[in-house]
Amino acid sequence: MGARDVPDTATVSAVSSFIDFQNEIYLQGMGGTVPELPMTADGFADRARELLDARAYAYVAGSASTERTALANTSAFDRYRIVPRMLCGTSGPGARDTSVEVLGTKLAAPVLTSPVGVLELLHEKGEVVVARAAKELGVGTVVSTASSSTIEEVGEVAGDWWYQLYWPADDELARSFVERAQRAGAKAIVVTVDTPSLGWRPRDLELGHLPFLLGKGIANYLSDPVFRAKLPAPPEESEDALRIAILTWVGLFGNHTLRPADLARLREWTDLPIAVKGVLHPDDARLVVDAGADAVWVSNHGGRQVDNSIAALDALGSVVGAVGDRADVLFDSGVRSGSDVLVALALGAKAVGYGRPWAYALGIGGAVGVRHALRLLLADFDSAMGLSGCADLAGITRELLAVPR
Fold it and tell me: Could you give the dihedral angle defined by the CA atoms of residues 138, 39, 67 and 169, in that order, rounded to the nearest 10 degrees?
């Protein structure tokens, strides 16, 4: 059976209780049907290593330099232990409330798909596939500027989605991206500030592979009127025209000149809520909230930017302490299980972003794979939450955690 031929045995018609997925699997097992897709984040990574093209796998798996930051992100969760409370009289499966509202967006669970670029490496129109899966499950999706599908293509199928802006070295182009996203139905703008340029990524370097230079992941640029006006000819006209467009992209991606005050210009372009993603230092969090950000997203880009950086989880508490009373605090980098979600929420995150596992699943099983990966995380979280004595998200507090000596 091929990587994209996994049968759809887990279609979700409506979300009643995420933990229902567990009974669904066991009931299918009574008939001799067992899951063909992995049941853990590590399982997805292992299967992807076997099945995906080497360049596609390296692009998703790779992190900065020695990859110590990526390892630190996951191992940071080992520094906390959940202390479940018993006999709390909490509601059982189907009655627990996992819902939350973040930046005016109502979600069935405090989970969003983190922005992952160049999904065409994994599946045709991957962003559209992911947006549909997130909508079906009632969770959020954050769509990257570096998409293989256009803003408008995603907007046609997505539910509650946010647009992630890589602010280019051209404000007119940045404004065009933001205005397109708002017209297409985005509910918030997420400005990623930790990528003014790409990090040092040996896995990609060993293969001499940067997908953007092959014209991949730049659909939003190629479809943008401001960008196209900079070109001598339409990029689809010839190979030479596309090559010129790619080189134009090279000169525009990233922006080392941005400062917190630039958020005021973004506010002039849109009335959508604004989150700033890639913040680790509490002083940076204060600066962007003072400048008008509605949310701070604690993240180190999954370890892809600065080697030996602080683990994102280790930065979460100080950022919450600095701005948590004035802005929503979001989190990603290292989430691999439902208990990880629980820990991040207990440390003050309003919601978490989930990235690599569903990206691997997209490459392995397409739409079925993405739904499966998201359902696993959501069911695991629902289970961990109930077994820890929490009837709703308000019950997930710092008191739920212990720090082993």
Answer: -20
Length of the chain: 405
What span, in angstroms and rounded, lies between the C-alpha atoms of 374 and 21?
11
Q: Which among 376, 371, 330 is positioned nearest to 131, based on CA atoms?
A: 371
Q: Is the four-CA dihedral 35, 37, 42, 46 of positive or negative sign?
A: positive
Model confidence at 95, in pLDDT bands (50, 70, 90)? Answer: confident
| Assigned token pair, 59 | 């692009």
Select from 378, 370, 365 the least CA-distant residue to 128. 370
Model confidence pLDDT, tens digit, residues 326-347: 999 999 999 999 999 999 999 9
Separation of alpha carbons 38 and 35, rounded Å: 7
Domain ranges across the chain: 20-396
Name the pLDDT band for 16 (thresholds 50, 70, 90).
low
H or E stretch including 164? strand 161-165
91, 118 Cβ separation under 8 angstroms:
no
Computed over its alpha carbons, how large is the radius of gyration of the chain?
Answer: 21
Q: Any binding-site annotation on 47?
A: no
Q: Is 81 annotated as a binding residue?
A: no
**Beta carbons of 245 and 157 less than 8 angstroms apart:** no
Question: What residues form DSSP beta bridges with 331?
Answer: 298, 352
**182 known member of a binding site:** no
Would you say 369 is a known binding-site residue?
A: no
The answer to whether residues 94 and 232 touch, using CB atoms and an 8 Å cutoff, is no
**What percent of the chain clears pLDDT 90, i.e. is strictly above it?**
92
Residue 284 contacts by C-beta under 8 Å, 6 or more apart in sequence? Answer: none
What is the band of 1 on the pLDDT scale with cuts at 50, 70, 90?
very low
Res 13: pLDDT:
35
Residue 135 structure tokens: 């909508």
Using DSSP, state whether 174 is helix, strand or coil. helix
- Give the 3-state secondary structure of residue 118: coil
Mean pLDDT (the chain, rounded): 94
Beta strands 81-82 and 401-402 are antiparallel
Q: Does domain 20-396 have CATH number 3.30.9.10?
A: no
The residues assigned a catalytic role are 301
**Residue 403 binned pLDDT confidence (cut-offs 50, 70, 90):** confident
